[in-house]
Amino acid sequence: MEAFTSDKECLYYMKLLTFTLGIGMDVLHNYFEQKILNATEFYVFLETHKHYLFHECYPRVQCCCCSNNFLASSSKFGCLNKSQFQLLFDIASPNENDHCQIGRHNEITKDCLCRIDAKRSNGVDCMDITLMCAIIKSCFVNNNRSIHGNPRDFETIKNTRNFLAHVSDIRISESDFNSKWDEMEQAILAIAGAVGNYFAKATKRKINEFNSNELSMEKIKEIIESNADDVKKNLRDLIETQRENTLLVKHVKDEIIEQLTKHKDELSVDIGKLRFEVKQYSLAVTPSSQEETLDNQ
């Protein structure tokens, strides 16, 4: 398989990001399906917790369900943005049968959840790390509802993802790689352990295998195709850089060979901004070699 790069700090970055989006995300999806949904359909879960999730996106807007459980607050800040909410729910336009109230500036002052439906086509794999952590926080942690495992382990994975997403030149030092890897491995294995002992052991074997093997272009492409996280664009950018560098090296190599072949009898060859000096050396003839030559004639 094709190795990705010889730049060590770039390789550390890619290894940690691929670990996070690959094994890390697989463990989180398995955890959510087994321990959060517990045989419930994902869209049913979203419908059940729609009120909480709505106010994570629109924290200051009252809704028709607030009469029973008032969640809106003028000082509240939510953990979901509109694009995340719209990924999970279909939102119909308001109509006269809804419970919506419109303010003086044509803004919705009280919304109606009846016009919002969870998308049936979604599965747990539509969630990236950030969205999953927001859903768990909104539906469980913020409402003092317990979950299997330690919520801090999810925060560790999310923080590592955010660290990698905001690295300026998509490379990290060896010390950062080692410390972040250790934190990630502990958090991932703890979450896998909450699913079950067998799953934790299988995950540990995958981590060991991944850590001992070279990072390949094929593995990176696999992560890109299967992951919903926007940070995977960094993987795309590095693949494109690798492709361009490979083409450049091939072009320069071909040009050097072509020019040296063409000017093999000249003493120097100019290729681009480089000058190649061609020197001729005569082999020294030793007495022993002369005798051998004479004897063989």
UniProtKB/TrEMBL annotation:
Domain of life: Eukaryota
Protein name in the entry: DZIP3-like HEPN domain-containing protein
Taxonomic lineage from the root: Eukaryota, Metazoa, Spiralia, Lophotrochozoa, Mollusca
